[in-house]
Amino acid sequence: MKKYFILFFICIFLLSFQDKQTTQKLLIGRWLFEKFDPSTLDSKTLKEANQMNKGMILTFRIDGKFTSSQSGGPQQNNYYDKYKLLNNNFLVLGKDTTRIVVVNGEKLTLAANGRPQIYFKKEK
Q: Which CATH number does the domain housing residue 97 bear?
C-alpha cells in the first residue's frame, strides 16, 4: 500500500511539471490586448479602460523575460521585466502576481484579485 501511495505522488508531481511546461510553451510569444471583462466594469469605465490600453502588446520570451509595450501609451504599459510561472497557473510579472485563466494557441486571459479579467489574442 505504501508503494502505491508513493507512486501516486510521483505521478501527481510529474503531471504538475508537465502542465507547467505546456503552459510555458503556450505563453511564449506576442499577445495583443483585446479588452477588459465587460461584466466587471460600468460601460463608461470599460470604454475608457479599453481605449487607454488599445495597442498594448505583452511579449513573453523563453528566457523568463517579458515586455509590455504600447506605442504612445502610459508608462505603466511600457516596461521590461522578468516573469515566473508558478505551478498553480499563477504568473509573477515583475512584482505583480496574476492568475492565468485561459492560455491556448489563440487566447490568453489574466485575472488578479480586485481587478477585471484582461483578454489578449496571440499575434499571428
A: 2.40.128.280
Closest CA to 103 of 115, 114, 118, 83: 118
Condensed to tens digits (0 to 9), the pLDDT of residues 84-97 reads: 999 778 999 988 89
CB 99 within 8 Å of CB 111: yes
Phi, psi (rounded to 5 degrees) for 90: -95, 145
Write the pLDDT tens digit of every residue in 57-80.
999 999 999 999 998 877 888 889
Domain around 73: 2-122
This prediction's pTM: 0.79
Task: Say how far apart CA 101 and CA 63 lie, in whole Å.
Answer: 22
DSSP, collapsed to helix, strand or coil, labels residue 79 as strand
Number of domains, the chain: 1
Q: 100-118 in b/e burial notation, b at 16+ Cβ within 10 A?
A: beebeeeebbbeeeeebbb
Query: Of the candidates 69, 70, 66, which has an alpha carbon nearest to the alpha carbon of residue 51?
Result: 70
